[in-house]
């Protein structure tokens, strides 16, 4: 965990260095074809939630669209939204709730495609606790990141009777030690780790109480959307193709992810893909597309929990369907 934190801080520093000047279009010639260099900044370390973007790189889908994409791993505190919004990095990955929150602060980011349609954000409890739904959370210690949208939504909609909230430290150690402990997680990661360590786990998705932002969202800046729609469309097409290929056959990409992030085991990556696929609409022609209704619901919820002022962000400006 310490190594991850150090790595994340170094990556955040690298992004700050990148942001010292505006990115200028650059090209290189590969096998006689001129490719435009662009950067894609991830919101976390390379994991299954980023698999489709790496697949687009490995299988040449970016190159087919005339792009040479550098994927920049993220980490704790990586300033992806502001970096992309001000043009220091061309594209980024975020959770949908970060888009309107960023726009409210002047970081004009716009979502392009959603790799994961249903939110994988969840809470873990022990089966023996008797807690079978989020509304049942009581008489326990709950580790979560207060101040994050999902956490504030939970506090607003669930009584949390006799629940002691403590900071989430990124580990399942306390959960394994204490049968009256609950914690935040993602369906594609922590449930596997806890089960592998011998715990009997019940997974409670946050979407069960209505908070369901798109996840692994590709986004760019308003300015780039307006000034370079061909680049935006090409990047979006390649990412959609990459995700379809990854969810159909993840083996090569998972090996690559493990080489980039040695903390990942083949087991957690395999589990991750199987957990992510039901959360997508990958088998539908509309895969990757987003709806105004979902964005309206999300912005209304952010207003409800006090993280967004009413009418400061227009839902229709939060996303864009590239042609």
Automatic annotation (TrEMBL):
Residues 1-23 form the signal peptide. One of its GO terms (biological process) is thiamine biosynthetic process. Pfam families: NMT1. It comes from the Bacteria. SUPFAM superfamilies: Periplasmic binding protein-like II. Residues 48-252 form the SsuA/THI5-like domain. Keywords: Signal, Transferase. The keyword Signal applies. GO terms for molecular function: transferase activity. Coiled coil: none annotated. The keyword Transferase applies. InterPro entries: NMT1/THI5, SsuA/THI5. This is Myristoyl transferase. It comes from Bremerella cremea. The lineage of its organism: Bacteria, Pseudomonadati, Planctomycetota, Planctomycetia, Pirellulales.
